[in-house]
Amino acid sequence: GLCRRSRRGGSAGLMWLQQREARGALRHTCEQGEGLPRYGWLQHDGDAFGVQEIRERGLLLRTEFVKRPGGQHGGDWSWRVTAHPDMTVDSQDSLISLFFYVATDGQGTLEPHVEDGTRLASVTGSTEELGSFNISFLKATMETGAAPKHASYHYLDAPSPGLHLLSALVESSLSSRAVFAAPGGPRRRFLAVGARRGPPEGEPRGHLLLHQVTLQLPGRVEVTFESGSVAGRPGPLAGPALSAELAAHAAAFDRRFEETFALARKGFSPAEQRFAQAALSNMLGGMGYFHGRSVLQSEDTEQPVLSAEGALFTAVPSRSFFPRGFLWDEGFHQLLVARWDAALSRDVLAHWLDLMNAEGWIPREQILGEEARARVPPEFVVQRSGSANPPTLFLALQQLLGTAPLPYLRRLFPRLRAWFHWYNSTQAGTLPSTFRWRGRDAQHERFLNPKTLPSGLDDYPRASHPSADERHLDLRCWMALASRVMGDVAERLGEPAGLYRHTQQQLSDNALLERLHWAEHLGAFADYGNHSEAVGLERRPARAAPGQPLPPMVRVVRRAPRLQFVDALGYVSLFPLLLQLLQPDSPRLPLLLDVLRSEQHLWTPYGLRSLSRSSPLYMKRNTEHDPPYWRGSVWVNMNYLALRALHHYAAQPGPQRERASHLYAELRANLVGNLFRQYRESGYLWEHYSDSTGRGQGCHPFTGWSALVVLAMAEQY
After folding, report:
1. Which of the chain's ends, N or C, has fewer CB atoms near its CB within 10 Å?
2. 113 within 8 A of 122, measured Cβ to Cβ
3. What is the CATH number of domain 8-251?
4. Which residue numbers delimit the Glycosyl hydrolase family 63 N-terminal domain (predicted)?
5. Residues catalogued as catalytic
6. Domain ranges of the chain
């Protein structure tokens, strides 16, 4: 589907249904649990062009769109959908219905134009932001577009209940009274919409018009949108004209991709280049404009409240599974987006900073409006004002800083200053130059190790007993990065930078870092807190009464905790390396490189695992229903930071220069090679990868930070 970047801009989209003896499942979205072999963008330029393929049993759908600028309202666009039979199963001559819809969201008008009683030929309409327009639904053709194709047409005219309820509305309007009768072919019943529906339950939000075309595979359908403000249009963007425009944009995309990332010049095969193009395209094609109210819980209120209405233009981790903004993910996303389109990335950063409250806090998950809340488990909906998230937007800003216009930076600077102050005032530790994530799980008895969701690393092991004495290494390193970037921005603007440079100097002081976080007996940097390694999960009581369910598993502490460094060798231990805080001649650098390269600890043939195999909590469940997450899997964002750091140290004079260069080359080959193999075998990029087999795990497709593989291939850090 598509919509305008507007709170009330309306929407248009596609549904489809494979007609199997007047039965079938209506699809409006591609969902992870449906077992589709592959779906996603093959090419998408983030602006005016995209090609997508969706494969399911019996069907290959190819959708293509292109925009043609002009007028005062964004110009024209056209959409082509080609449906092919899946040659791996007997689907030739199968019936498919394609449903194209346009809906307003409480503002604007739509007027249907119907031919032959059942075919919605076009829609004229107007909205405040789009002006007047005409949408034409062209007649079906053969897959090449060369000849007309027999099809049956139906339409639906109904009040719109909102985008998240459209599927249910359409499904409820289907009946099996329609008959498909191609010349010389058998008569077949199929599911078709009725012409009109009464108002849906609840208050209607707008107007829905839907065009259904039913045809035998293969076939093609085109839809054109023409803006009333475009003058001197050369002709409809359809048929051969559309083919030519799509071909020109595809060629331009290929050229721009190679100019930006140079993968062909680096020796990557055509298949590897297509993989990288798909990774970038799904990042760009998954970007969305979200608006509504968040549910917030302040320390000053007893009950959660709705925020003021806000809007966010952002990339997302997974458009089908996580279709919303995540703060720490977004900094990683923009590292890639900024290489492709710096202006687009600057726009996203500004949207995120505009969501800041008066104290300088940005909620870590942006669940804006009813549609977004409908897809989120209730326990994650409420955003608590004391909880932070890694300030990764500074990573992206650091990359953008050299070319960002000064007026843009001046608008951002007050928000950046407030954000930086919020972290320093709310996440500081008890000792100077220490930091502690607030918001760890309070119900200690439920978890083997209470989660630290604000850190982004969720179940990564921390001190077993949360307390005010904790010192979190990763947060301290993030604040070192933030102070450095704040100093750079301030100096570029001619603003006072002394405070930021002083903080940067303190947090980058290797001697102070060692005093606070070096665990000599572990041979690594570590968190510090009230900790016991003698914890486990047990059923209490051990047996259930006859006929009763098993009692729950609870945490058992076999030895009292004490203040100490936490034995959790893994990603957190590497943060002084990952964010390049260690001096090239630091005596701790070779020790971290030892840990990184040790197969007993973090090294695998697929990338760096998140937690050492020697850790007491390696691959341990946190509850009986809570499998390990950041306790061994290979995560692409952290591996990208490791490559970035090794690339840095390989370029610095120092005793570890040659070793860092060798490790960099080996790690890059392992990570890129495994992600490409898994994509080729499964059809997807994944949220994380098994440290023992390399297989994709968790959410898929996950083209958020896993798409950083493109930058690893391009060696852009």
Report:
1. N
2. yes
3. 2.70.98.110
4. 11-154
5. 458, 687
6. 8-251
